Structure formats: C-alpha cells, structure tokens
C-alpha cells in the first residue's frame, strides 16, 4: 500500500473544470460569519462539482485572505455570486419555478432525516445552510420545499457549517453522479 502522488490523482485543470458538466446543486450560505467556513464550502463544492455557490447577507466574499486559506484556490473554480437577503428570496422563488427543490439544512419540526431523503437522479437541488448561531433565516423557511436534518447521537446538537455542508453535499451529489 502506498500513498498516491498528486500527479496520479487525475485531477482536472481549472480550464477543464470550467468546461465540465456540473451537478445540479446550488449551495446557499445564508449569513455565515466565518470566512474559513466559507472557504471550506468553496473547496467541498469544487470536489463535488456543484453548479454554483450563493453567498448571501453578511457572508463574506472573495477575494479574501481567510477564504483563500481554506478554499485553496477553489474560489476561482466554483461559480459564485453574492446577493442581499431580499435578492436571495427572489432568486429562490425564480429557480423553484424552474423545478429546483429548495432545501434548508435545519432542525425544524418537519425536518426529514438525511438518511431518509430520496434524491432523484435527475433532480435539481438548492441547499441552504445558515448562520453558525441562528441557522437558516426564519424568512427563508417558508420558501423551502423540505428541511433536512443530519442525524446525531452525541451530546451536541449541531455540526460546524462546513462539516454539515460536506455531509449533505455528498448525500445529494452521490446519486446525481451515478446518473451521468
């Protein structure tokens, strides 16, 4: 057993990545405070070939040294845009009309356990992750088709936002990739 060298990993170049078909997943960071979390979500989004990352409210944007520290350049490979809270609401309603499922990653009274959520192989998913303290904005919840909750069995009742993003992206994207 040996570790692979970077050259053996078969990674796409930035130009190849930009030409590659993306998974029909949009990630929304709703008022996320930590720039390191933002960078980590960029990096995970690159790994899972998400279509786009939307940064809303107080969420920081590139170029930023702290975002770059954890994004490691993926802020240049993942399509992203910033929008105000009001613009985000309009965008969510617009893509919902185009058949996108709007999904909050949040603990609410009607959450679906992530393990029970059925991803459609031809589906289009917009996953909203909220502020580190307050979660997904109350104003966005009525716009959502579903809310997903990641099962947890310990004493804490939350994950770091970048960890939650990675878990949920994997669960949704793995079925989309299989359908290619």
Strand content: 15-25%
Measured distance between first and last alpha carbons: 31 Å
Radius of gyration: 16 Å
CATH architecture assignment: 3-Layer(aba) Sandwich
Provide the CATH topology: Alpha/beta knot
Number of domains: 1
Features:
seven-stranded parallel sheet, Alpha/beta knot, alpha/beta, 5 helices, 180 residues
Characterization of this structure:
- With 180 residues, the protein is of the alpha/beta class.
- It has a single domain (21-150, 157-178), classed as Alpha/beta knot (3-Layer(aba) Sandwich), CATH 3.40.1280.
- It is 32% helix and 20% strand.
- It contains 5 helices and 7 strands.
- The chain has helices at 14-19, 35-47, 65-71, 85-97, 161-178, and strands at residues 23-30, 50-56, 80-83, 101-105, 112-113, 125-130, 146-149.
- The chain has a 7-stranded parallel β-sheet with strand order 3-2-1-6-4-7-5.
- Helix 3 links the parallel strand 2 (50-56) and strand 3.
- The chain is globular and about 45 Å long.
- The mean pLDDT is 95.
């Amino acid at each position: 057993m040996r570790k692979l060298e970077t050259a053996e990993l078969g990674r796409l170049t930035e130009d190849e990545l930009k030409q590659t078909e993306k998974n029909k997943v949009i990630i929304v960071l709703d008022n996320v405070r930590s720039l390191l979390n933002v960078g980590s979500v960029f990096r995970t989004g690159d790994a899972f070939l998400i279509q786009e990352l939307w940064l809303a409210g107080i969420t920081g944007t590139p170029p930023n040294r702290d975002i770059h520290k954890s994004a490691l350049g993926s802020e240049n490979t993942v399509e992203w845009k910033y929008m105000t809270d009001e613009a985000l609401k309009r965008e969510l309603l617009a893509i919902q009309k185009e058949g996108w499922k709007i999904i909050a990653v949040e603990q609410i009274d009607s959450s679906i356990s992530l393990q029970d959520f059925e991803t459609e192989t031809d589906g289009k998913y917009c996953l909203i992750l909220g502020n580190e303290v307050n979660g997904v904005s109350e104003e966005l919840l009525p716009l959502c088709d579903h809310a997903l909750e990641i099962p947890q069995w310990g004493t804490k009742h939350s994950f770091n936002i970048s960890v939650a993003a990675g878990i949920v992206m994997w669960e949704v994207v793995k079925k989309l990739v299989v359908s290619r």
